[in-house]
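Can't paste images in this forum, so I'm doing it all in text. The chain is below; anyone willing to post the predicted structure tokens underneath?
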Amino acid sequence: MKNQNGFTLIELLLVVAILSVLASIALPSYIHYSDKAKFATVISAAAPAKTSIDICIQANSLPDCSKLNVNSKWAQNEFISTITISGTSSKIVVKTTPENIGNISNLDTYILTGIVDSNNSILWNDDSSGCKISKLC
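Text version of the structure:
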């Protein structure tokens, strides 16, 4: 009788079962982190609008900086649907809406609200309830 080398069928099935359990644990985490990375581009797309508003307020170039036009280049990204600037001269809102990609929906809007004080400075608050519920921001 020859001495056989190798793995038995039971041993191979056991290894496949262990790898399946590990993959089922790791895959949801990977998908969530991948979605968070995609959503980071949505958050960063709000930065040019925020900077433009900051400059407008400090330079006092417009009576109402919430009427600034959105540059179309700010939203030139596959993950960005729209960027809007709205509000009043004392409360300015920047909304960045993502495209529906993966687990990210257009309900996961990133919202920045800026309150302008009497010293021509602005305090920004993150009012993004949609992306906070999805745990993306």
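The helical segments are 9-45, 47-59, 129-133. The chain has one domain: 9-133.
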